[in-house]
Known about the structure:
The protein has 323 residues and is α/β, with parallel strands linked by helices. It has two domains: 10-141, Rossmann fold (3-Layer(aba) Sandwich); 156-314, no CATH class. It is 44% helix and 18% strand. The chain has eleven helices and ten strands. The protein is globular and about 55 Å long. It starts with 11 loop residues before the first strand and ends in a 9-residue tail after the last helix.
Amino acid sequence: MNATRTTTRRPYDVVLYGATGFVGRQTVAYFAEHAGTLRWALGGRSAPKLERVRQACGPGAAQAGIVVAASDDAPALEALAAGTAVVLSTAGPFALHGSALVAACVKHGTHYVDITGETPWVRDLIDRHHREAAAKGTRIVPCCGFDSVPSDLGAWLVARAVHERHGERCASVKACHSMSGGLNGGTLASALNMLESGQAKRIDDPFLLNPPGSVPARAGDHADPVAPSLDADFGAWVGPFVMGAINTRVVRRSAALLAASGDPAYGADFGYQEYQLFGAGPLAAAAAGGVSLGMGVGRAAMQLDLVRTLLKSVAPPPGSGPS
Length: 323
């Protein structure tokens, strides 16, 4: 079995699993506008909800199929995986709703893509499925949302540009992000599940996703920033970025795998770090300090059952999010 094998022999090219969720609905709308002749379907646990999403997306979704499969229904998930070349999943928390689906995809040689940021779960996927998936030519590609496509591709493009323009291996890359908007309920649900399942402490490992033998001797030099600083390169105040503990692990894994495959762009101890950008001046310094302090206090508070219960009562539920 190989990566070029299947598209014409299966009913669908792509199944969008989790199609009734917050990101899932946006994905269906995008496919309705752009899929063209692609054979695609909406997947999830509720046929009526899937039908409502399909209807809401207009004529472009009219030919899309519907595949019903709950995340704990292994036979239904196997049928779903066997009926498509690619599964694109937006159904989180993935540690709760994704493991059986990935297993079904590996079993049936179906490519799988998701938008998780749950790096402990991704580490477990690698350990459990990498060898079999690689032998079959099956691609299992998590973290393909904002976690962590801009960081992963951005770091790769910078490293490649350094090598092409200057003939030097890239020693390190820094990235800064700015944020605005509201909170996605699914993202919060994933974070709370990691805390409640005892997985959150694994996130602190800066090389959680790295392949064996690729962790530098001084791993502590790559620890996540916890305090604000005035960055000379950006000429601005920066502080810890809420998604940094996810994105940096993905970038470091990619860099290690590419370097091992002979990519000449990466230095021997390639470093990647990212920050939230606040700007210049005293107001920016105050904002950087306040956000950094708030993140530290918030993370400590979320270790408490009472705080997590309160968050669940006031935060947007899974399936909802900003406009």
